User: Fold DUF3017 domain-containing protein from Streptomyces antioxidans.
Amino acid sequence: MRRSRRFPLITRDTARPEGGGRAAPGAAPAPARQWPLLAVMGGVGLGLLIVALDAFRAGTVLIGLSLMAGAFLRWALPEVGMLAVRSRFTDMLTYGLLGAAIVLLSLMAQPDPWVSIPFLDDVVHFTVR
Assistant:
């Protein structure tokens, strides 16, 4: 019997995202198989701890860099375990853009911003007035 190429009317299962397989052999313990996700979550957790210890800018930069590292891991590794949520392109775009936005906003945060972008200053002044 030839199977149809059409999508079924009733979905019975979900497909694993591209690259969603184990990052280490199946005989390895569970944390070793999910090391890419644990590395990103560890960086974000450390950034949150640094923010809680009253170093806002350094902590938020670390959070953003951790997300950007997740985008790099998603690009560089063939299998990343649970770090793969969607397609490879969508994951890289999401992790990279969110990480870059967090880093940029933390560098522009008041008082004493490390980066000043006049266009964004004008946008903020226009919307606040």
About this structure: The CA atoms of residues 107 and 114 lie 5 Å apart. The longest helix spans residues 56-76. The two ends are 69 Å apart (CA to CA).
